[in-house]
Write a structure and sequence with these properties.
Elements: E1 3-12, E2 20-30, E3 35-39, H1 46-53, E4 61-66, E5 69-70, H2 78-84, E6 85-88, H3 101-111, H4 116-129, H5 134-137, H6 147-159, E7 165-169, H7 177-194, E8 197-201, H8 205-211, E9 214-219, E10 222-227, H9 229-233, H10 236-241, H11 248-258, H12 270-284
Parallel strand pairs: 3-8, 3-9, 6-7, 7-8
Antiparallel strand pairs: 1-2, 1-4, 4-5, 9-10
Helix pairs in contact: 3-4, 3-6, 4-6, 6-7
Length: 285
C-alpha cells in the first residue's frame, strides 16, 4: 500500500479576517514499507497534515490517496480507512483510561467487533511488540507505570488494530534520555516486524536522520524539501533559513571540516563520523 498526497491545500477560518493557509499545495508519496520523517518548526503545518492522512480533516483542494482509495472524496467510509491508518497523537498516555493495561490495549480491537480469542491474541502481540512483558504487565493499572511504559502501552493500543500505516506525532516528547531511546528502538522494531508504512514526526533532527528512509520538510504550510536524509540534510542553508538545525553529529562534523579536517560533508551517524575521523588521524601521523 502507498499514500499519495497531491496538491493538498487546507485553510483555517476561510473567508474570515483570521484566515490562515495551513497547507499550501503539498505533494509527496509514502511507499510501502518506508519510514517517513516529517520535520518543521512549531506551527509549520505538520499536525494539520497528519490529520488529513487519516481523514480527520478534509482539504479545501487536493487529494490524499490511500492505496487505491481517494479518501478526500464524499461517501468514502472513513471507519475502514482509520482501521488501516493508526494515528498516535503527542502524549498518548493522557488517553489511557481502563483499569488494566490489557483492557486498555483491547479497546480498539473490541471496537472492530472481533471475538474474544482474537482480541486476546492481538493484545498479547501488541504489548510484546512494544517491548513489554505481557504476563507481567497485563493486569497492572496503566496509571502505576513509568512515563515511558505508559507511552508504550498507549502505542500498543494502536498497534493492536494492526494498521497498515502507523503515524506517530512526536513519540518521544517529554521523555527522559533513556525512555527516549527505548521508545525509538521500539518504533524501529514495530516497523521492521510489521513491514508497514511508519510516519514519524519529530523536532529531533538526529532521530529523523537515523530512522527515516524519506524526509519531508514543511515550513509555514509550504513543502520545502523531500528526499533521503542525506539529500535533505545536505541543504544546510535552506534548512537554517526555515529555522531548522542539522542533526547534532552533522553539526559536529561540519565544525571539524571548517577547521580543515578532511572528512566527508553531511555525515549523519556517529559510526561513520568516528571511522572518517580515525582515517584522517591515521593519515596525519
Amino acid at each position: 500500500m502507498s499514500i499519495q498526497v497531491e496538491n493538498l491545500v487546507h485553510i483555517y477560518d476561510k473567508g474570515m479576517p483570521s484566515e490562515q493557509i495551513a497547507l499550501d499545495n503539498i505533494s509527496f508519496t509514502c511507499e510501502d514499507g518506508q519510514m517517513v520523517g516529517i520535520i518543521g518548526h512549531t506551527g509549520s503545518g505538520k499536525s494539520t497534515l497528519l490529520q488529513h492522512l487519516n481523514g480527520l480533516l478534509k482539504p479545501h483542494s487536493g487529494r490524499v490517496i490511500v492505496g487505491d482509495v481517494d479518501i478526500t472524496q464524499p461517501g468514502v467510509p472513513m471507519v475502514q480507512i482509520r482501521r488501516k491508518i493508526g494515528l498516535v497523537f503527542q502524549y498518548p498516555e493522557y488517553q489511557l483510561f481502563e483499569e488494566t493495561v490489557a483492557k486498555d490495549v483491547a479497546f480498539g480491537p473490541k471496537n472492530l467487533g472481533l471475538d474474544e480469542e482474537e482480541i486476546e491474541e492481538r493484545v498479547r502481540e501488541a504489548i510484546e511488540l512494544v517491548g513489554l512483558d505481557y504476563e507481567e504487565i497485563k493486569d497492572r493499572s496503566p496509571f502505576d507505570l513509568s512515563g515511558g511504559q505508559k507511552r508504550r502501552v498507549a502505542i500498543a493500543g494502536v498497534v493492536a488494530m494492526r494498521p497498515e500505516v502507523l503515524i506517530l506525532d512526536e513519540p518521544t516528547a517529554g521523555l527522559d534520555p533513556k525512555a527516549h531511546q527505548d521508545v525509538l528502538k521500539m518504533v524501529r522494531e514495530v516497523h521492521e516486524r510489521t513491514g508497514n508504512i511508519t510516519i514519524l514526526v519529530s523536532h529531533n533532527m538526529g532521530d529523523i536522520a537515523e530512522m527515516s528512509d524519506k524526509v519531508v520538510v514543511i515550513d509555514s504550510g509550504h513543502l520545502v524539501a523531500v528526499g533521503t536524509p542525506y539529500e535533505v540534510f545536505s541543504k544546510k542553508e535552506e534548512l537554517r533559513r526555515v529555522g531548522l538545525e542539522l542533526p547534532p553529529i552533522t553539526q559536529f562534523t561540519e565544525k571539524l571540516r571548517e577547521k580543515g579536517i578532511g572528512i566527508d560533508s553531511t555525515i549523519l551517524d556517529v559510526d561513520t563520523a568516528a571511522m572518517q575521523i580515525a582515517q584522517y588521524l591515521k593519515k596525519e601521523k
